[in-house]
Amino acid sequence: MADILSEISENLQIGKAKVVVELVGRALEEGIPPQRILDEGLLAGMGIIGTKFKAGDVFVPEVLVAARAMNKGAEVLKPKLAAEGIAAKGKAVIGTVKGDLHDIGKNLVKMMMEGRGIEIVDLGVDVPSDRFLASAKENDASIICCSALLTTTMGELKTVVDAVKASDISGKVKVMVGGAPVTQAFCDQIGADCYTPDAASAAEAAVGFI
Amino acid sequence: MDKTVKISIIDRREPLECAPGVVLLDAIRSAGVAMESPCSGKGLCGKCKVRVLYGVAPSPKEDERRLLSVSEIESGFRLACLLSVDSDLTIDIPHEETGHKILTSGTKPDFQFELSIRKEVLDAPSRSPDCNSPYEELLAGAVPSLAKMTLPLLQTLTPLDGGYKTSEKHLTVVWDGDSPLAIEAGDTSDAIYGIAVDIGTTTVAVALVNLKNGEELGTSSAVNPQKNHGLDVLSRIDYARRLGAAGRHILQSLIAQALDEMAVSLCAECGVEARSVYSITVAANVTMLHLFLGIDPVSIGVAPFAPVFLRALSVRSSDVGLRSFPSAMLFTLPSVSAYIGADIVAGAYVCGMAKQKENVLFIDIGTNGEIVLASKGRLMSCSCAAGPALEGMNISCGMRAAAGAIEDVSIFSDRRAENALRLKVIGDVPPVGICGSGILSAIRELLRVGLIQKDGYMLSKEDLTPDNPLLSILCVYDGKSAARLSPQPHEVVITQKDVRQVQLAKGAILSGFMALLKKAGLEMDDVRRVLVAGQFGAHLPVESLTGCGVLPDILKNRVEYVGNTSVAGAYMAMMSRVARKEMEELAGEIEYTELSMMDGYQDIFLDSLEFPTFKKNS
After folding, report:
1. Which residues in chain A have Cβ-Cβ distances shorter than 8 Å to B455?
2. Are residues B231 and B274 in the same domain?
3. What residues in A contact B298, CB-CB < 8 Å?
4. Model confidence at B274: pLDDT above 90
5. ipTM score for this prediction
């Protein structure tokens, strides 16, 4: 029975969405608990992809096809998990800051986090600080992830951090920052809660915050 | 505090005296020593490397540990922007840039000269020795359209100093269209010159032209001095934003002074008087034009990327600080959008993109790749953020194209060990790093022999059989497999991370092509010609462009290098009013696509990341 779970993980890693969906269905038929299929099949596979991505052994396209396979598999599991009253591990809102239109990096972070079982509210690109804030409140999220890809827009990360600090969710929500020009030093300087250099580490850090 | 610290730089006579705690980069720059800082001193790029030879420096900061290798830190390498100096130090600045050749000329079509500048020789109006009425009125009596002169024109009148001494029988009026530019003593109709300029983010190129016959008398080029405040346009915009009006002023004076000096020495070399230059015509990207004219560039840096202006401007040269050219008009070419500037309009114009009957792609490869596609009379453009990897930045052993840079690599998979690699190094010295063209050729070769797979994965020794001759190329660097091009002490390697950087850059450019083709409803094979413009592209052989998949293999035999079409366009705008007008029309005709807003762009980009595959035995 463990075989089918590692088979799910392996097929997910090479992006075979159809096979993953089929295997998830079969695992359910075999009576494996949905939570276990999720953890030891889908999330395990995505975890391996995350590690490989961090090392540079796989790249953006491989992560995205793996994530697609994971999402397809998760769709099959969702009703079962809900029926058993199992909710996501936590919630995060994510977006690219105001003035910035880059979304591929942000999408990677989103998928890696989903791969860790976190529910993501994606606000898209060019997101003003008040929308980050409103969405975090509305969704009762515990993390705000914001990305800036331009030297000229990274200042906007501070706007988000400041807005959160001045609000009534200050202390309840962690602000994570990232993007090509962002560094740990910059994160410290603007008082954000966390910086990670890549999407896989972001997902790891997010799990720690939940 | 009256205590100072001494910073001695190897090969410089005087040590610098500074206040303790000074940031090394600032100290070096305040002494007038040029030092690159692509990220503008933010501790991001790791390029302001210095080596501490003697003295005690504070221990490396975290960012330094990230950007420098362990062996570099052990041998005393530090980043000047992160090092604050508390006690006397002796440092060495490694691989200082040495003058690399910059392209100053580009393809130009045949065209009719039709100058807006002309000279009119008049009989000097006579005046009695005791006449005290103003010279302006005297001239207006001779030439009615000279009545009510503008201030700059009045400033060209130097009556006792050669303006129109009684000894001169003639005087010459210089006209720009209907407006008088200058009034000169004697018949100066033979001396009429202009300067065509390309202000690049990295380099500035100028050409001195005899306007009488269109002859190019000489060219010169120099590094854009704004470079010390950031290598790419965004870092410079950020600098201007952080420092506000003062920053704008600094950047404006830097480029104006540099251009003035370049033009003055070029005139001197060619025996031309600066006051006989009447036209200075400038092509540049939109950020460079804003900065050159002292206009706020900040809005170019944030979505929706709206510049302050795009149209062609015509002003007095002295208005922007070109002090040595009091009689010259400055004309700046028109742009299309924040990221398709006058340099690209110039290029599209000289390449006749509007008149193409076939499908033609024009590309200027640099930190930004700007692309124009001509198809059935329609012109489409986009700009892709390739990043600086193709120029040797953000690459482990990357450097600019200077002495010691590997510029070409060949791998012979059938030869053993030390014979398997052949390197071409700029200046024929032992290699110390690798420049953009070198990185592309190295990756092309590694792909060709199969050490890099099409998904960008670099094989490790364990992936090869023990008898594989390629084994000698692979090594372990920072705990990961890498290709070693040159051994210690100046080890040059290509790492997995480097491959990923190039993959992103090439993916960005190729995705730009694909996006425009998709918009035009074309296939790659429908493109008949690919025109590669610009300084950087000129150094990239077709084999590298197609070998790394910047361009698909199918276009291999359709690539043409057109040189610095930006300065060529500036030349044409100077020599022909018609060209000037047509460029303004062209700028209006070119459609611009913002790739990040285009539906389905992410998929196009992902498809473009894959490297090409090579047939076995190739």
Report:
1. 58-59, 61-62
2. yes
3. 152
4. yes
5. 0.85
